[in-house]
């Protein structure tokens, strides 16, 4: 049985979902993505020698700021009082590149998946922006929801996680 799209009204018009009848519960979402680059560019980032400064610090802050502004970027998202936003960035020599993971949490009436995904996307874009002078051919890949907990639908984990 296919689920209906919650952001469409009876006549197909876009709408913001009314969450006022939902119970406020703890909700957590984790998203992930990666920036694939050459080993040389990865070394530049990890040594802190990028011309624009601290790439990882700037990307973490950008991701956190983006999560807080998701409702301003994505139409029909609710403004949320986030209680936690964490952005972790880890080097992966096999890619080579950086793996970006964001965790968002709140106690509220709607989930935080879009906030976690937005945090990852903007952190990845910030990494690209800060080192594009060294390598324009970097790729941002695999942005996806890893896990979400809470709310009526309960636990979701991406396959293979």
Care to describe what's here?
With about 160 residues, the protein is an alpha+beta fold. Helices cover about 30% and strands about 30% of the residues. It has a five-stranded antiparallel sheet with strand order 2-3-1-4-5. A hairpin with a 4-residue loop joins strand 2 and strand 3 (about 95-110). The radius of gyration is 17 Å and the shape is elongated. The model has no long low-confidence stretch (mean pLDDT about 90).
Q: What is this structure, in a nutshell?
A:
This protein has 4 helices and 5 strands; from the N terminus they run βαααββαββ. The protein is α+β, with helices and mostly antiparallel strands and 161 residues long.
The dominant shape is elongated
Reading the helices and strands in chain order gives: EHHHEEHEE
Radius of gyration, CA atoms, in whole angstroms: 17 Å
Largest sheet: 5 strands, antiparallel
Q: Helical percent range?
A: 25-40%
Could you tell me the mean pLDDT?
Answer: 92
Number of beta strands: 5
Q: What oligomeric arrangement do these chains adopt?
A: single chain
Walk me through the topology.
Blueprint: E1 25-36, H1 39-47, H2 55-68, H3 70-73, E2 84-92, E3 97-108, H4 113-131, E4 139-149, E5 156-157
Antiparallel strand pairs: 1-3, 1-4, 2-3, 4-5
Helix pairs in contact: 2-4
